[in-house]
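FAQ

Q: What does a record look like?
A: Structure on top, sequence underneath. For example:
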């Protein structure tokens, strides 16, 4: 017997009402929470539902993160995905990230679900994700590590960011919080520098304050802006204070970043 998996972060009564909409002859509905959201891909791949339904009416960012991880997984990307409900004004980003998913308002869900269940053969019902533009293929919060597969509380220190930068990250999971300084709880720091003097101050700050096990991006202007320093200067300055770079990222048209951590002792 085929099984439909409903992922919803609503109260139990609301989940029960929505599960009722999904019930079909010859099909069961599983609406139990994931055992561990941080291990969602493996759990869903093993469960292998006939259709996976995301309830976007609450915590849509969590559903978006899980769906993106599924899309990138060879073991789970074949599972047909139906996004149900949600604020229409916030769905554009999900649609761009999930071009092969089905979207429906809750009153349209029964019809959409029937179409997915009767698609044949099932293994071909969902194609491997098409190649998307780089800024859509991997959302910036994931590229930077602001959002990870873990649902543990994650504090991000944001230093000297340009106006509106947080807004460019979009709708983030509720477990991600921002601080204006580096603290003992900092898991990730995003440090924007515009001059050699700011670079010097920033690397000293990271050497002294960045917790062991945390990481930091030093984000600097791209060369087309003709800054007084470039990536090599950033790396050299950080290496001199005991930091080690291990990742590079183009943040947008204006900024690039190098990611650092403390050198292992």
């Amino acid at each position: 017997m085929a099984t439909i998996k409903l992922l919803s972060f609503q109260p139990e009564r609301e989940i029960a009402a929505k599960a009722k909409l999904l019930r079909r002859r010859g099909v069961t509905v599983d609406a139990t929470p994931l055992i561990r959201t941080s291990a969602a891909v493996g759990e869903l791949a093993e469960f292998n539902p006939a259709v996976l339904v995301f309830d976007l009416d609450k915590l849509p960012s969590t559903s978006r993160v899980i769906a993106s991880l599924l899309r990138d997984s060879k073991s789970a990307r074949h599972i047909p995905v139906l996004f149900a409900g949600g604020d229409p004004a916030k769905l554009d980003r999900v649609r761009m990230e999930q071009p092969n998913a089905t979207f429906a308002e809750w009153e349209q869900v029964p019809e959409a679900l029937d179409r997915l269940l009767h698609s044949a053969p099932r293994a071909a019902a969902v194609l491997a994700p098409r190649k998307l533009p780089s800024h859509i293929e991997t959302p910036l919060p994931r590229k930077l590590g602001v959002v990870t597969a873990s649902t543990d509380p994650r504090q991000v220190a944001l230093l000297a960011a340009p106006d509106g930068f947080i807004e460019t990250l979009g709708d983030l999971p509720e477990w991600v919080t921002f601080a204006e300084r580096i603290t003992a709880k900092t898991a990730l720091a995003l440090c924007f520098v515009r001059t050699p003097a700011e670079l010097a101050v920033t690397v000293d700050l990271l050497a002294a304050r960045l917790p062991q096990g945390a990481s930091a991006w030093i984000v600097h202007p791209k060369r087309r802006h003709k800054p007084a320093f470039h990536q090599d200067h950033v790396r050299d300055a950080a290496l001199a204070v005991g930091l080690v770079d291990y990742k590079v990222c183009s943040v947008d048209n204006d900024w690039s970043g190098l990611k650092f951590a403390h050198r292992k002792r």
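Q: Is there anything notable about this one?
A: The two ends are 55 Å apart (CA to CA).
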